[in-house]
# Entry
Amino acid sequence: TNDIGIVFLPDGSHYTIAVFVKDSGETPEATAKMIADISQAVYECASAQ
# Structure
């Protein structure tokens, strides 16, 4: 499971993110949650700056 995207921040700036997961050994749902958690952490960090 992989995901990429362009994220727009409230201040009008944006960033791109790509998360690639290979052979995680987890269920697809758990892998999707890992990707979502990573994306959320990056968003919180980027929007705090």
Notes: The beta strands are 2-8, 14-20. The first strand starts at residue 2 and ends at 8. The chain has a mean pLDDT of 95.
